Amino acid sequence: MLVAVVAANPLQQVILVADVGVDDAAGVLLALSRRDELEVLGIAATFGCHKHVEVTARNAERLLAAANRSSVPVYRGAPFPFGSTDLMHGDGSYVHGADGFGNLPDDYESCSPAETGGVSAAEFIAQTARSAPGKVVLVSFSPLTNVALALAIEPRLPTLLRSMVAMGGAVYCAGNASPLAEANFMHDAHAARIVVHAFAQAGSLVLAPLDVTNPTIIAPGFIEQMSAGGKAAAMFTSAWPTYQNAYCKLAGECDGTPMHDAHPVMYLVAPQLYTRTEQLKLSVISSQVGDPAHGMSTFDRRGRRADTGIGGGREAGDRGSVTVLLEVDRPAFVKLLTDSISGLARLP
User: Fold this and answer.
1) Is the pLDDT confidence value at 10 over 70?
2) Distance between CA atoms of 57 and 77, rounded to whole angstroms?
3) Which residues, listed in sequence order, are joined to residue 18 by a DSSP beta bridge?
4) pLDDT class for 312, splitting at 50, 70, 90?
5) 223, 237 Cβ separation under 8 angstroms
6) Labelling 288: which of 87, 109, 236, 326 has CA 20 to 30 A away?
7) Beta-bridge mates of residue 280
8) DSSP 71-106
9) What is the tens place of the pLDDT at every residue in 153-185?
10) Are 15 and 44 in contact (CB under 8 A)?
């Protein structure tokens, strides 16, 4: 069942679930730039691009301060994967810099962050969903730890939310954090497995995997144009060379980078750009760290066999499936992202 998340309400209330590093910043700035369409209620900070959630939360606060949006609260999430007491193995400093954000200078420090009253990220998600049933969209571009914890607090979460749009997984393509797994899913595969299953049962999950995000390369000229968007945009574009250098060394992409984490936000504001989607009965493998299949997205590739009931990989129109974004109009995506971020400085 194709999840309708746009037309009914012109102003959508959203919670961003993010481990703010370089490409996460593009997603956050895109959301902030679409003020007539999206109301950002808060950011649920997650570990991911750096080992500790305090780093990603601080990066979110720095970015919001630079955008003159310090009134948007940032809620701290768990510092380790769901059901674990160990910090994430390794970190993303080789991609995002030691500070998780391109090793930016101190002039990008945060102002006083919005008061959260000590509420955790998971509590914030659950409480907000309860207070406005059917109205809030959860937009995730990080490991799904906070969402799994919110689901443990409030099992009705998938039906209380309007929908969830998440960046994660690798469906038909190779992984990036391992041969089979995408980073957000691999960094907390147990949480990803729980969340994907629960939201699929409600028919309320849209997934942007590497299949659609990897080919959407943003060239340096477009990044330079985005710097016209004011201090927050300049913060992002100043951090971008660290991200570009990592892609050049690790993936041979030296003339641009994917902006993975802008896709869930882009789907909310311009779903028509996504030219190919599939309904898949998707699941996530949770085994153990180091196993190549840990965090792998999978579905029954045999297809449906109605005569026996076996299979069901591509059954559409029923609960239990995920709307998977597979292709996007790349030039239109790049233009809208560039125009939106470069226009931030003109917002009141």
Assistant:
1) yes
2) 9
3) 45, 141
4) very low
5) yes
6) 326
7) 322
8) TS-EEE--SS-TT--SPPSS-SHHHH-TTSSTT--G
9) 999 999 999 999 999 999 999 999 899 999 999
10) yes
Tokens 């059954």: give the residue.
315
Q: Tell me the one-letter amino acid at 331.
A: P
Q: Helix 22-33 to helix 330-342 angle, to the nearest 10 degrees?
A: 70
Place of tokens 């300049």: 234
198-247 pLDDT, tens digit per residue, is 999 999 999 999 999 999 999 999 999 999 999 999 999 999 998 898 88
Half-sphere CA count of 31, side-chain side, radius 13 A: 33
pLDDT higher than 90, residue 94: no
| Rounded-to-integer distance, Cα 260 and Cα 310, Å | 34
Structure-token match 């998707």, residue found: 282
12-346 CATH: 3.90.245.10
Q: Which residue has the higher pLDDT, 317 or 240?
A: 240
Nearest to 266 by CA among 178, 165, 345: 165
Closest by alpha carbon to 147, among 78, 72, 57, 56?
78
CB atoms inside a 10 Å sphere around CB 107: 8
For the record, the structure tokens of 224 come out as: 């330079």
Query: For the chain, what's the residue count?
Result: 348
Give the predicted TM-score (pTM) of the model.
0.90
Going from N- to C-terminal start, the domains of the chain cover: 12-346
